[in-house]
Amino acid sequence: MQEQPKVAQYFNIRKNIIEMVKAFPEVKENYNDLVASYWVLYDNVKEMAEIRKATPAETITRQFRKLVELREITPPARVLEARQEKAREYRTEFSALGG
Predict the structure, then answer these.
(1) Average pLDDT over residues 72-78
(2) Cα–Cα nearest to 69, from 55, 57, 83
(3) Is this prediction's pTM over 0.90?
């Protein structure tokens, strides 16, 4: 079986995320729920050991953030505000280190 090109894989992941968010809107609120649900629904993970063969968590969250950036998914306002506050804290913390 020929492996899909990376670009096609990312579009499939995005499609899966959109489908999952429509069915389970609560996954928009928490990255852990998003990733765990993705693994169960699309990677058929049933046991912890299977996670190492599943779609990487960073890939799932990166594609989710891209969909938010493209406005194809809109997390609740309180979630966006909390994430923006964490980003501000991070910038403040690390700007003191010269970064």
Answers:
(1) 91
(2) 83
(3) no
